[in-house]
Amino acid sequence: MHFVDFVSGSVAGACGVAVGYPLDTVKVRIQTQKQFTGFCQCAAETLSKEGVFGFFKGMLLPLTTVSMTSSVVFGTYRNCLQCLRQARGGDWGANTKMEVFLSGLAGGVAQVSVMSPGDIVKVRLQCQTESRQRGLQKPGLKYLGPVHCLLHIVKEDGLRGLYRGALPLTLRDGPSYATYFLTYTTLHDWMSGGSNKKPHWTGVMLAGGIAGMAGWFVATPMDVIKARLQMDGVHGTQRYKGFVHCFTETLRTEGAGVFFRSLSINCLRAFPVNMVVFFTYEVLTGFLTTTPENVDSPPWGLE
Hints:
Blueprint: H1 4-32, H2 39-50, H3 60-87, H4 97-110, H5 112-126, H6 146-157, H7 166-191, H8 201-231, H9 243-254, H10 263-288
């Protein structure tokens, strides 16, 4: 079993959150609040009304949970690759692209149970546009922080409330991580010329950035549905009866284009985030792998 990948994935995920969180906040607000019409308008209004802090609302809990979920994703992915290779009797051969795709799918689905509670807290705090400077007693400030938000959700909806939007989250992350790892592996192999030669670190970062963009291209429609279900009922009447109703109602009232409203910002955010994620993952895995038997661990990419 590859324990190194759990450690490397955890650190890489935390680094990715720190890099991409401001853009993630803008993305969530565009998806869920109609007063924001685009990236520049949303970013400018957030900065004007809430200051720089507004871009980092709710980051503490995701920083912790994403470390765990990234650990689960990379660890599950690497161990699934090993299991699939052993199942076909090719212990020392390269994994097929289908094995990479299925392992990425498994990694994406596996992390939903860990990710969902932190994700709903993140989304609700990001969509709380009131500034702290107005005072904690203001009626509009519903959540005072990540822990208060978490407890408030449990109090109102029970533990089940922490998993609101889990279905679209699963439908988002399964296919997107499958695409993510397949794209990265394909580019990695292409840059190394199909040999065991390690690509330069710039190649690792480029492949990671492109893989992140490919993954979010697949993920964006379900990301919109997920965010809307997570915010539904927060400001009053609950609008959606469930996943299917949210999907059909959104499509009916706003058209198919709404599912890709945040695609550009997702890609803008995904490139630098996943450059950092894969670079950190590859470097740490290479550093922590000290025995020649660990031939399946990823290369450093620092030759």
